[in-house]
Amino acid sequence: MKLVRFGEAGRERPGLVDAQGRVRDLSGLVPDITGTTLSSDALSRIRQTDPSSLPVAPAGQRLGACVGHVRNFIAIGLNYADHAAETGAAIPAEPIVFNKAPSCIVGPNDDVVIPRGSQKTDWEVELAIVIGERASYVGANEALDFVAGYCVCNDVSEREFQIERGGTWTKGKGCPTFGPLGPWLVTKDEISDPQNLSMWLDVNGERMQNGSTKTMIFNVAQIVSYVSHFMILEPGDVITTGTPPGVGMGMKPQRFLKAGDVVSLGIEGLGEQRQRVVAFEGNPADTSKSWKGH
Ligand code: ZN
C-alpha cells in the first residue's frame, strides 16, 4: 500500500493511493498515519478495506509528510562507500548515527527554507525506513519484521553548521524544513528488495545524484538492528539511511542551494519529491507557515 497524508499543514488527513493513482480518504478508518496505525495488525485492517469504498480526496491537495507525529528522526552518516570517498572521509567501521530534529519534518513538496545565516545548504536523497513495531535489541535477521515501510527523504544539511561549528552533526541537520518525507509511505510488502532501488536528485533539472541502495555500507536490516541496541525504536520512528555521491559539498568547486532553486528527487517505487528553495524570512515558528506542518 501507498499511504499518504493530505491537506493543509498541521491538519493533514490520512489517505491511501489507489490503483489509478487517486488519493482515497482513510479518515473514516484511522485518525492519521502515525505510529499507532503502522503495526502489522493495523495495516492489515486497512489492507482489507476495498479502496473503491473510500471517498476520493479532492484533487490538487497538498501532501504532508507521509508519517505524522514522528518521535525519533534518526539518520545514518556516510553510509555509501562512494559518498564517503567524495567527502574525503574514511569508510566507517560502525554506522554513524545522528539525530534530525523531528520538527524539521515537512511535506515532500513543501518549500525548503535556507536557515538564517546559512551559506552552505546542501541536498541528500535518501531511503528512509519507517518503524512499525517497537524494537529493542533486535537481530539483523529479524529486523525487517519491525519495519512498516519506506519513503523518500531529502536529508537537507547545512555543512557549515554540521562540520565547522564544533560538536556533533546535529546542528546542521535539523533546521526547519530540513526533513521532507514522502510522497508516500510504501509498505514493505511492495518493496521486494530495499537494497536494489535506484535513486536520483536534480537541482534545477540538472542531475546531481544518481545512485542505488546497492552501494550502502550497512543495509536496512543491519541499521535497524544496530540502532535498536542504543535506543528503543517506536512505531512511527524514521531512520534515514545515508546518501549516495553527488552532494554539493563534494563538488569541485562546492555548490550549495540558493533561493529560487528547485530540487527534485526520487527513489524507484517510492515516488518523487519537488521542493522550491526559499530565503529565510520571518519566524519559522509561525504556525501559518507550511514548515510548521508534519
Ligand atoms: Zn544524510
UniProtKB/TrEMBL annotation:
<dbReference type="InterPro" id="IPR011234">
    <property type="entry name" value="Fumarylacetoacetase-like_C"/>
</dbReference>
<keyword id="KW-0378">Hydrolase</keyword>
<dbReference type="InterPro" id="IPR051121">
    <property type="entry name" value="FAH"/>
</dbReference>
<protein>
    <submittedName>
        <fullName>Fumarylacetoacetate hydrolase family protein</fullName>
    </submittedName>
</protein>
<dbReference type="Pfam" id="PF01557">
    <property type="entry name" value="FAA_hydrolase"/>
</dbReference>
<dbReference type="InterPro" id="IPR036663">
    <property type="entry name" value="Fumarylacetoacetase_C_sf"/>
</dbReference>
<dbReference type="GO" id="GO:0016787">
    <property type="term" value="F:hydrolase activity"/>
</dbReference>
<comment type="similarity">
    <text>Belongs to the FAH family.</text>
</comment>
<keyword id="KW-0479">Metal-binding</keyword>
<feature type="domain" description="Fumarylacetoacetase-like C-terminal">
    <location>
        <begin position="73"/>
        <end position="278"/>
    </location>
</feature>
